[in-house]
Amino acid sequence: MTGVSARKVSIIGSIAGIAGVLMIGTSFGINNGPPLDATNEQLIEFAHVHGREVLNGAWLQAVGPVLIVFFALTLVRLAGATNKLSGWMTLLGSSILIMVSLTEVVCYITALFPVPEIMGAIGNNMGHAVQHLYFIVAAPSLFLPLAFVILDSGVLPRVFGYLAIILALSFIVVGITSLYTLILTPLDTSLAAIQALWWLAAMIALIVRSKRIPPVL
After folding, report:
1. What is the DSSP string of 151-163?
2. pLDDT digits (tens, 9 = 90+) for 131-163
3. What's phi and psi for 56, nearest 5 deg?
4. How far is Cα 192 from Cα 25, in angstroms, rounded to an integer?
5. Nearest-CA neighbor of 69 among 17, 141, 134?
6. Most buried one in 59, 121, 150, 194, CB count within 10 A?
7. How far is Cα of residue 202 from the mean position of the Cα atoms in its chain?
8. Where exactly are the structural domains of the chain?
């Protein structure tokens, strides 16, 4: 890979990642979900009235993480960590993250089926259960190895590596402390919004530093 192509990869990966973050943020904005204490009849009515918003949000949440992972693997490639353990573990963490996100999307769509009438409750309850996986394993398994990819290279300022470690540990703590809470609290889920700021800052930083990234074979 020449120096020019390395810059192009940096910019393309960052733009894709920014689009992914915005897509996920939009998905959460238009897909707030039904009340927690909704009856089966209310869930069916919610699905009838808000079905399009739920499906649009599901599409955004399915595609957005793929674009973010594209950015993460771009960092691995530019850092020359493709054949390092940190690079392989980043790939594994990316796969887990996408799996968890897609499973949650399936739960959203499942809740829209009106027959049998309990499908709304099943889909929503399964969605709340899957959310735990994001904190327990999905986010930590991506942020932690990616932190070492950054710290072992000059692809991004080292502060991003240290912040990624803090984020990974924070997700682990929340995953443990909320283990016995079936439905995560808004305070718990707010950590997802904080990590979005890390992604956006890292993507912008990569664009700014793209001219200084050395060639990668």
Report:
1. HTSSSS-HHHHHH
2. 999 999 999 999 999 999 999 998 999 999 999
3. -65, -45
4. 10
5. 17
6. 150
7. 14
8. 3-209
